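Why does residue order matter? Because the sequence determines the fold. Keep that principle in mind as you read this record.
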Amino acid sequence: MQIVSGGPDTEHSPIKLHYVKMIASATKKIYIQTPYFVPEESILAALEMAAQSGVEVRLMIPCKPDHPFVFWASTFNAAYLLKSGVLVYKFNPGFIHAKICVIDDQVASVGSANFDMRSFELNFETNAVIYDAVLAKTIGEKFLRDVAEHSDQMTLKEYSARGTLVKLKEAVARLYTPIA
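Structure:
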C-alpha cells in the first residue's frame, strides 16, 4: 500500500499526478466512482486516450446533486467522455460519495480525493493506493454491482436531448469550474 497526500501546501499536485499515472498504466480496464467529476485537462485527455486505445473505461457519478454547480459540471464532463467510448453511469439511489479508481483489477485507489480540481489543488486529501490484485478485483466487483443494480447508463442520445434549461445550468457551472 502507498499513501498519496496533497493539499495547498504541496507543489506538484500529487493527487492529480497519482490519478494520471494510474490511468496511463491501464491496459484492460478503468473503473472510477466519484461524487465530483470536474478534472482538469490532463485527466480528461488520459481517460480519452485510454478509451480510444481499447481500454474499457467506466465512470460512475451521482444522479442527484449535493452541490448544483459541481453536479452540472460533472455531468457535462462525463458526457464529453462519451464521445471517446467511455461508459458513464449515474448512480440512482441518490448521492454517491465513494471515491475509487480500479485499474486492470490489479491496483486500486481509495480515499478522500475526488476527481476534481479542488481535490487536486485546494483541499487536503489522502488516498491509499492498494497494490493487491485480490482486493482490487473485489473493489472492481463492487463497482460492477453498483452498475448492474443501482445505475443507469448515460448515452449520447439521452444527453443530446437535454433541454435548454439543463444546457444553461451546465454553461453556468462550467464558468465556475475552476473554483467549484
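The longest strand covers residues 56-62.
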